[in-house]
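Issue: copy button drops trailing tokens. Both records pasted manually instead:
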Amino acid sequence: MSMEPDDFLRAVEAALFVAEAPLTPAELKLHVGNGGDLDAALQALASHYAGRGINLVERGGRWHFQTASDLAHILRREKDEPRKLSRAAMETLAIIAYHEPVSRAEIDSIRGVQVAKGTLDVLMEAGWIRPAGRREVPGRPLIYATSVEFLTHFGLGSRRDLPGMDDLRAAGLLDPVDLALEGMGGQSVLENDEEEA
């Protein structure tokens, strides 16, 4: 059954509006069928809602409506106490985001200290990381990756939107130790150790 283009667009809009969670294009097709060009409808709706009070956004291959970021503060009725992550949790989350999929041993190696199990539990409870299978090596360690909730919370379309070194430097988020190492010719302690070996 084919729909008129306007009817198909309206059906996609309605399905996204009532969805309890973000939807993939395949899930949307289950609701609206194949009566039109879904990609074109999604792009048309995203353009239509750009600059309005709500926006249609795609995060990790899933589409949903969200409040425009510049208006979110006026819709909060109660102040949520933001749960601050420990430095260890922030470092662990950054390592997983930039190196995923990554095992606990690999996280330990990059951080230089052992990660506490509670740190990974906190990140999983927040919904920002997920188990992503097992590495095909002896012992078959569990590997971790970021979740769609991570992308949504931080307003990222995909992991490619994570800030690079230049962005972090411009924002003043690099530690003085990182800047000092970079000033020494850009070699890290690990690189020096490899040369000596």
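Record 2 (pasted manually too):
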Amino acid sequence: MTDESAPLDSVSAAVVNSGIVAILRAPTADYFAAIAEVLAENGVTAIEVTLTSRGALEALAGLRRQLPASVAVGAGTVLTLDDAKASVDAGAEFLVSPVLDLDLVAASDVPFIPGTSTPTEMYAAHQAGAALVKLFPASSLGPDFLRNVRAPLPQINVMTTGGIKIEDIADWLFAGAKAVGLGGPLVGDAVVGGSLTSLAARARHAVSAVSFARS
């Protein structure tokens, strides 16, 4: 089947190539450096640091210095122009939001992935210049929703996020998602100092699911 999706910039392409965006969200960002290292070593090469985590900007800057250039590092829960500027200044290569703000999409100096939950929002975000559009909360809508939307709108590159488990990854990719955002089901208790060995195993499982769906 021919892929009719719109072409991607290099950063958005890196996110798609990863297939998984690891969402780091916790009361504090104290463990983000160790988590990101394990994720990158096990094939998860797109990482989103949410601004709701205390110390997020400092952690983001550290990750950009720490991780290889092949790992795309972005900021999540970006809601304002000030959020966007501070994130980019800290080294964010892409920005993610749970909502659709067309002004933010248009003003961003880096790829901006806005949250959408209807075909109209998804199309508006695409028309505003969003190379990737986030479907959120994805688990409440389901893969069939995405499959049905992409039938008339195949040009929209969609990243699905919200309540997705590792065992759901293949279903979303089969439905047409270009990448899947995973928070708790992937990162687990590592955000509060839990086992990095278990984190590595989950990362490998997630990466295998992407490889399976794309093979």
